[in-house]
From TrEMBL:
This is Alpha glucosidase 2. Signal peptide: none annotated. GO terms for biological process: carbohydrate metabolic process. GO terms for cellular component: membrane. SUPFAM superfamilies: (Trans)glycosidases, Galactose mutarotase-like, Glycosyl hydrolase domain, Trefoil. Gene3D superfamilies: Glycosidases, glycosyl hydrolase (family 31), Golgi alpha-mannosidase II, Spasmolytic Protein, domain 1. It is found in: Membrane. Residues 1-42 form the P-type domain. Belongs to the glycosyl hydrolase 31 family. The chain crosses the membrane at residues 754-774. It comes from Oreochromis niloticus. One of its GO terms (molecular function) is carbohydrate binding. InterPro entries: Gal_mutarotase_sf_dom, GH, Glyco_hydro_31_AS, Glyco_hydro_31_C, Glyco_hydro_31_CS, Glyco_hydro_31_N_dom, Glyco_hydro_31_TIM, Glyco_hydro_b. Keywords: Disulfide bond, Glycoprotein, Glycosidase, Hydrolase, Membrane, Transmembrane, Transmembrane helix.
Length: 775
């Protein structure tokens, strides 16, 4: 981080409070805990409102600043458009959005489609107060008066490469702001979260694979609100103990949304309504996935599959990492060591299992002309990202020197599709794992470096790992169809995922790099973690955060990716992983699939996976609600108990939906768990839930949870009878639901090819009535 000194601070006309003299009684946040504090004085040059007019959807203001600040490219006149949005759906009166632009020249805007609204709300849930001189905005919750946003605490900056505003926060309880490795609840004590997609093993205080400028906040009294800055440029989000938050981005515009909730689940729904609803996954996406970097041959990959079958351990999907490729080149397979790959895939299909392999964006650029169609054809069609001079930019990844497809261009999507189709004719894969799409580069920028200018070396560089925008990626000046890489960088994974959804049935894509709206196109795994107990624990926060970001199909590498796992850790991880929405065992060193361990461990893992398979109807129904209503699948306890402040920091337990609470073992050498149970009547799923066997022709029921007889694959399991597992509340009632369709046809909900069944039980005078409603 940047060292704050009196000189640096005062050079910017700011006030400085050294760490030692800071007084904790001051109302202004001061240099507590040895951290000095630099802030803008009230008289710092800022914008004033010079005109304010009503519009169809709200108001429009012109802001003018008289005096330039020290940032180059200061824009002295900006326009603010405030929209009091309403919508025919659930979001009525709950959304307020603001767009601040430069009226004299158009600036980069993130190319994702957000809903356009037609009408202005007449009775919003919020009150807006505009401060004219200096410009500032206060947003209050009408029902409680809580101040959700107050930007008058610091001046607005709107320079070409430096856009900043700050707000006080009504709470210390802030979540979201991915992708970072941290506890689920963020620390607001001088915590800078930098966003800029980056290939790096998950590390604290570091920008990771994806960028998600969205937070959810819990207010006093259990209300929740959300805030989304739709901006893809490199940025810092600085959490301060006041509590306060500063957004600092180096490009684009300021375009933000406030979601009024008022409960946390509704905030996520309102966010997802803006960025896009997650796709309904193909049913087998929810099965057990097995992968390894280091299967030397297709035969050894196959051996594991056969061994899993022999031991009766569920497995729906087998994967390969880059080992399968010929010299690590996309759309090839190593014909000697992986000679039987097409046969393996046929065998998987014959057993109702699936095959997924990795694809990296980098396309080898050094093969003899005429020998590697993907590159030759790509050059011909002009699909690759260009350097500042218009030549194909060359970087380096696993196959050596590579060019990078520009997925912001439709032409590239066609070329990508053609490649996939040709490869599919050889190896009939079922889904794609798109890795290295930050995009990752073993070099900084390109083989020939990058130009020296203000895009490569902006006046201010956020706290990105490596200190340079081009660190282990492409030059900021690289040219893409829709804009320069400086603007497009963190969108690469999103655009590649979009290009990769190309099959007739529901596509299966797992992406490392992600951006808001990614859930429409892919799931995500939490990256190259380690086989350590700490990584087991932090995976829960990662999973919960991505559910909050509208990407519910998420999980960590079960048993850990790097370093050697231990048997006990791997058992515990499989038990937790059985409750990841997406569960894949993957690693880089010795085999760590369930069959590699002792009979005791193997059996424990098998039981955990059978439990997951028996709960498939629950999980599948939760994904339906994510797809249609923007609900979370795995969710923090506080989503269901928003008034219970004790639940706000919990990230060692989580829930599936409303009624299933998971309390995993996260420490070595223990055979018990300490968990928190919010008020209510809780049943032990294993011992006290009532199981009523019902065949599939009867009325199907779901209350506490819903089970099916598990089997080796979900295809077989879903043909088994369903059981109702009921857990009644104190008054003897319970309810639940089930979504059921063919599991793979696209848009079954949208085209009415599904069954949706709602159940409720009421107990009157010791008779139990079962109600069943088919919708
Ligand atoms: C508001 O209206 C006035 C007078 O009609 C006009 O001069 C001004 O440009 C308008 N301002 C904005 C922000 O549209
Ligand atoms: C907008 O308002 C008009 C007129 O009051 C109404 O007919 C229309 O249905 C509204 N549209 C939406 C999306 O609410
Ligand atoms: C907003 O912040 C300013 C500056 O700290 C403060 O004077 C003002 O009272 C705040 N407004 C509200 C509504 O809290
Ligand atoms: C894989 O197994 C097949 C069938 O047993 C065999 O013909 C082939 O040689 C093996 N491939 C390798 C690389 O060992
Ligand atoms: C799968 O189903 C078959 C046939 O019903 C049964 O024999 C087998 O035991 C089941 N496997 C498991 C793991 O439950
Ligand atoms: C190989 C690998 O991914 N290991 C990394 C795991 O993460 C730590 C930091 O959290 C790195 O130091 C390791 O290199």
């Amino acid at each position: 981080g940047v060292v704050v000194t009196r000189e640096l601070c005062e050079a910017r006309n700011c006030c400085f409070i050294p760490a030692s003299t800071a007084s904790s009684s001051a109302s202004r946040p001061s240099g507590k805990n040895g951290i000095p504090w630099c802030f803008y004085p009230p008289e710092f040059p800022s914008y004033s409102v010079v005109s304010l007019n009503d519009t169809l959807l709200g108001q429009k203001a012109t802001l003018v600043k008289e005096v330039k600040t020290y940032y180059p490219g200061d824009i002295l006149t900006v326009e603010v458009e405030m929209r009091y949005e309403t919508d025919k759906r659930l979001l009525n009166h709950k959304l307020f959005s603001i767009k601040i632009t430069d009226p004299s020249s158009s600036r980069f805007e993130v190319p994702i489609s957000v809903p356009t609204v037609a009408n202005k709300t007449e009775s919003p849930d919020y009150i807006i107060e505009l401060s004219k001189q200096p410009f500032g905005l206060v947003v209050k919750r009408r029902s409680t008066g809580a101040v959700l946003l107050n930007t008058t605490v610091a001046p607005l900056f709107y320079a070409d490469q430096f856009l900043q505003f700050s707000t006080s926060l009504p709470t210390q309880f802030i979540y979201g702001l991915g992708e970072h490795r941290s506890t689920f609840l963020h620390d607001v004590h001088w915590n800078t979260l930098t966003m800029w997609a980056r290939d790096v093993p998950p590390t604290e205080q570091t920008n990771l694979y994806g960028a998600h400028p969205f937070y959810l906040a819990m207010e006093d009294g259990g209300n929740a609100h959300g805030f989304f800055l739709l901006n893809s440029n490199a940025m810092d989000v600085v959490l301060q103990p006041a509590p306060a938050l500063t957004w600092r981005t180096i490009g684009g515009i300021l375009d933000f949304y406030i979601f009024l909730g008022p409960d946390p689940g509704s905030v996520v729904q309102q966010y997802v309504d803006v960025v896009g609803y997650p796709a309904m996954p193909v049913y087998w996406a929810l099965g057990y996935h097995l992968c390894r970097w280091g299967y030397d041959t297709s035969n050894s990959t196959w051996e594991v599959v056969k061994s899993m079958r022999n031991y009766g351990i569920p497995q729906d999907v087998q994967w390969n990492d880059i080992d399968y490729m010929d010299k690590f080149m996309d759309f090839t397979y190593e014909s000697k060591k992986f000679d039987t790959l097409p046969d393996l895939v046929r065998d998987l299909h014959a057993h109702n299992q699936r095959y997924v392999m990795i694809l990296d964006p980098g396309i080898s650029s050094t093969q003899p002309e005429g020998s590697y169609w993907p590159f030759d054809e790509g050059v011909k069609r002009g699909v690759f990202i260009k350097d500042a001079e218009g030549k194909t930019l060359i970087g380096k990844v696993w196959p050596g020197l590579t060019a990078y497809p520009d997925f912001s261009d439709e032409v590239t999507h066609e070329w990508w599709y053609d490649n996939l189709k040709m490869f599919h004719n050889k190896v009939a894969f079922d889904g794609l794992w798109i890795d290295m799409n930050e995009p990752s580069n073993f070099l900084d920028g390109s083989t020939s470096g990058c130009p020296s200018n203000n895009l490569e070396n902006p006046p201010y560089t956020p706290g990105v790992l490596g200190g340079l925008l081009r660190a282990k990626t492409l030059c900021a000046t690289a040219q893409q169809k829709q804009s320069i890489h400086y603007n497009m960088h963190s969108l690469y994974g999103l655009m590649e995922a979009k290009a990769s959804r190309i099959v007739a049935k529901r596509p299966f894509v797992i992406s490392r790099s992600t951006f808001p709206s990614q859930g429409m196109y892919s799931g995500h795994w939490l990256g190259d973690n380690r086989s350590q107990w700490k990584d087991l624990y932090t995976s829960i926060a990662g999973m919960l955060t991505f559910n909050l970001l509208g990407i519910p199909l998420v999980g960590a590498d079960v048993c850990g990716f790097s370093e050697e796992t231990q048997e006990e850790l791997c058992v515990r991880w499989t038990q937790l992983g059985a409750f990841y929405p997406f569960t894949r065992n993957h690693n880089a060193i010795s085999p760590q699939d369930p069959t590699a361990f002792s009979p005791l461990a193997r059996t424990a893992m098998k039981e955990a996976l059978l439990l997951r398979y028996s709960l498939f109807p629950v999980l599948y129904t939760l994904f339906h609600h994510a797809h249609v209503h923007g609900h979370t699948v795995a969710r923090p306890i506080m989503f269901e108990f928003p008034k219970d402040v004790k639940a706000y920091g919990i990230d060692k337990q989580f829930m599936w939906g409303k009624s299933l609470l998971v309390t995993p073992v996260l420490d070595p050498g223990v055979d018990y768990v300490d968990g928190y149970f919010p008020e209510g009547l809780w049943y032990d799923y294993y011992t006290t839930c009532v199981r009523l066997p019902l065949d599939s022709h009867s009325c199907l029921l779901s209350l506490c949870v819903f089970e099916q007889a598990p089997n080796l694959t979900l295809w077989v399991s879903t043909g088994q009878p369903l059981h109702l597992v009921s857990a009644l509340s104190q008054d003897g009632s319970a309810s639940g639901d089930l979504f059921w369709d063919d599991g793979e046809t696209i848009d079954t909900y949208e085209t009415n090819q599904y069954a949706y069944i709602i159940f409720s039980i009421a107990q009157v005078l010791s008779f139990m009535f079962l109600f069943c409603l088919f919708v």
